[in-house]
Amino acid sequence: MKTTHPKRVSGAELARLTDYSAASITNFVHAGILHRGSDHKFDLVTALEAIRAHEASRQQSGKRPESSQFRQRYWEARTGLIEVKLAKERGEVHSEQECSASLGQVLTSVWTEIKALPCRVQAAFPEIPGLETAVVNLVNDAAQRLQDFAKQNSAHIASQPPDVQNFKSFSGDKSRNTPNANLTAKAKR
Asked: Are strands 8-9 and 42-43 parallel, antiparallel or unpaired?
């Protein structure tokens, strides 16, 4: 786990991040809910925790009488937003871009291993002619099903599906449409 220095923010930045007014932040300071450092800034994680605790105690104590369900939901959403920002600052959650990049790297590694299977199978069983072609066809079929799934769920999948149109094994002449011609020729000898 990487160690980072606490993020320090001004009152205006804290107001923007929490959707409170600058006056509310100042009032929280005067009430002793928030504390500025010697640099007149707030530790972001500590400030978010204090605001969340303050709002939770107001909800539970009845100091925030809500006249409508709309208002109640508004304050719950506002507290939820603070929870999300707090979790992000603590490193407990990651951005969509970070997750997509990580998932893309994993999928690329997996697809590279899958593409190597026909060559490995043919090398392990050279006595069976046409085995590599059969495995290539099976891999292409599985890749097509995965690509169809990705298209149906494209809103949730940020990576490119594998190119299954011209799948060939890693060895052999890549310019030809026949998969792994070199190993197939060796198997026939």
From this structure: antiparallel
**Which of 33, 81, 86, 74 minimizes the C-alpha distance to 57?**
33
Say which amino acid occupies 180. N
Residue 77 zone, left/alpha/beta (φ > 0; ψ -120 to 50; rest): alpha
In DSSP notation, 15-79 reads: HHHHT--HHHHHHHHHTTSS---TTS-EEHHHHHHHHHHHHHHHHHHT-S--SSHHHHHHHHHHH
> Could you tell me the pTM of the whole model?
0.45
Nearest to 170 by CA among 116, 131, 114, 123: 116
pLDDT in tens, 10-20: 999 888 888 88
More confident residue, 35 or 99: 35
Q: Show Cβ contacts of residue 132 under 8 Å, excluding neighbours closer than 6 positions.
A: 118, 119, 121, 122, 169, 179, 180, 183, 184
Three-class SS of residue 9? strand
pLDDT digits 0-9 by tens, 110-124 = 888 888 888 889 889
